[in-house]
Protein 1
Amino acid sequence: MKRPIPCRDCLRPVLWTTTEAGKRLAVDPTADPAGNAAVWRDGTGAVRSRRPSAELPLTGWERLHMPHVATCPARVQQPALPGTLPTGVTSLDAHRRKKRR
């Protein structure tokens, strides 16, 4: 397969694939049986990925990989406390109250 490229956020190696819809998806370069992205190399040498389903299960030339967004330590969000907003989000409640008057 192609050479892994470092993630911009965590600098861990990622493998960029092209999905069936033509979008790019970063996956961890090592196969993971808990993953949900079937990765294979097509006839042109491009690394492709898809989501296996009951209708189209995993085939012999595909390996399961974990999408990098699920394992990237820089993207793992801490659970917010109830009633608090995440950093960078502004509450519009005060504005809406003024407008209703």
Note: The mean pLDDT is 86.
Protein 2
Amino acid sequence: MRLLATAAVITLSSIAITPALAQVTPSAPAILADGTVLDVTATGKTTRVPDLATIRAGVVTQAPTAARALGDNAQRRAAVLAALKQAGIQPRDIATANVSLQPQYRYQDNQPPVITGYQATNNVSIRFRDIAKSGAILDALVAQGANQIEGPSLSLDQPDAALDEARVDAVKRAQARAQLYAKAAGLSVARILTISEGAEIAGPPPPMPVYRMAAAKVADTQVMAGESDVTATITVRFLLK
């Protein structure tokens, strides 16, 4: 009997939601001259505590003129960047994410839209490796005028070692599953013919809420890192006799 595997992929999630598994898909029998082929897809897993946080924060301002909207935005953005510097964030970890200026309209029936003002937006992406500081940084951003915040999104700074552990676990799981199927079929596992894996792909981060806040004193914010699963999926072809 031949069992063909589904496409193999590798995933990294900032949230622990992917269980380890192995599966096979039955198809038409395939018999080699010296045995039977069995394809197994297995997912290995290891667990890590995230050590990298990413926040997207910015300032949205409105004014009757474009120049005033941009000027007000620049002043508040400078205060936000100063707060980040005071919090110990390095310049290399701050990148402009979005800058926009849009007219605001008033609409009336049977009338062309009328520009009533302008909205300026300037967002930066901030990453830092001390997740315990996330809450304090969020509070400092809001206190200095940031009124648009997404995150934090938690991840691993260097996932390679964790991925290697997950790959080893995936091979062990594939071998155990192959032994199970071989025994059930009255055969034994002779050897591995091929091992394949998909490209490494970081799973999409969970949706992050967008906060719009007034620059006022807020309660202390706490961010808990928790644990994340690192998973690797492989397809192994076995020869059974």
Note: The radius of gyration is 27 Å.
Protein 3
Amino acid sequence: MPDVDRDRAWLLTVDGAPQSYVDLDAPEHLEFEYVRRLAHVLDLAAEPGRALDLVHLGGGALTLPRYAAATRPGSRQEVVEFDAGLVELVAGHLPLPPDSGITVHTADARAWLEAAPPASADVLVADVFGGSRVPAQLTSVEYARQAARVVRPGGLYAANLADGAPFGFLRAQLATFGEVFAELALIAEPSVLRGRRFGNAVLLASDAPLDVAALARRCAGDAFPARVESGPAPARFARGARPVADADAVASPQPPEGAFSIG
């Protein structure tokens, strides 16, 4: 069950695992490293301060939408969250500022995406977990095609994923999205990419060449530095993996006990 703790700003946990961290007075402050990496993607998606059309699949406590509203005022943001109880909890305890430009939809992410207008998002962010696993319906070629349909030409798709060695899930995701998007990049801590531990990885995809130099500098400068793998590196990482269709899709692996716990 969701729970909100304000000992340190607002920390939202789901079944004991950290889900979102929000500082209502400083929405630019991002506590979780994977969220910082997603924010770096948003920061570099266009010139600073320019308003964007953003879609977020997975809402949580709306940490990233709040960040985008603060750093790119005037942006139009659609947030899709399946958990109606969580939406109600966040609305009651963590209200959005007036004129935030954020609209929250209580809906299934895949169904909402399939009904969304084509070429309607500059950036589509997927951060959807059922418990601690990415749902199977958001891992297939058919889903990737819907994402590509909604993202504008030259726009970006960014997904928070989680896996560990031997990376069967992550490699399949690279193969799947490489079937649909011309360019891929992968952002993760070196210890995760080397298979030393289970952790988050951000998959970045576009139909246009990715300028990752600035992104790599930002990720390398974080408190927990991450590496950006681009060019031929994602294909090498995924070598031997095959794209996944709806009929064969599975959820991401169950994290080892304690992988994302707090305390």
Note: The CA atoms of residues 100 and 127 lie 20 Å apart.
